[in-house]
Design a protein that fits this description.
Elements: E1 2-4, E2 7-9, H1 11-24, E3 28-33, E4 36-41, E5 77-79, E6 84-87, E7 103-104, E8 109-115, E9 118-123, E10 128-133, E11 140-141, E12 146-150
Antiparallel strand pairs: 1-2, 3-4, 5-12, 6-8, 6-11, 7-10, 8-9, 10-12
Length: about 150
Amino acid sequence: MTKINDFTVDGDLVRKLAGLLDETHLTEIEYAWGEHRIRVTRAPAVMHAVAAPAMAAAIPGVAPSVAEAPIADHPGAVTSPMVGTVYLSASPGAAPFVRPGDAISVGQTVLIIEAMKVMNQIRATKSGTVKRILIADGAPVEFGQALMVIE
């Protein structure tokens, strides 16, 4: 314990709160008791853009595209309606709701997003075939983020 201006800081508590930030992928957490408060924050990771070297030769069988549209603008993109954590199956170890190549119908559950301790089923808005799943199980998602492509 460290004493700061007649206030004793519990280092173990601060470390536990910092661990919760990592565990829950939050950037800030606040703990209060009585008239005392501890707030632990973490700056979001800063991503640096690095220019990729030009490819020396084209990959056989893949046609180069002049300008690819963002995947979220794809007409078959399933985007996140909320911020939360995505789950591709109903429970750990269970089979995923869908896999690439699966035929699906309107209203079929394709994944779950947990937000505020509520499990929200995300349903297909169109029938088709799952072409790509763009997110890993248990990953945090943002509003409007593309999660999968159905064609």
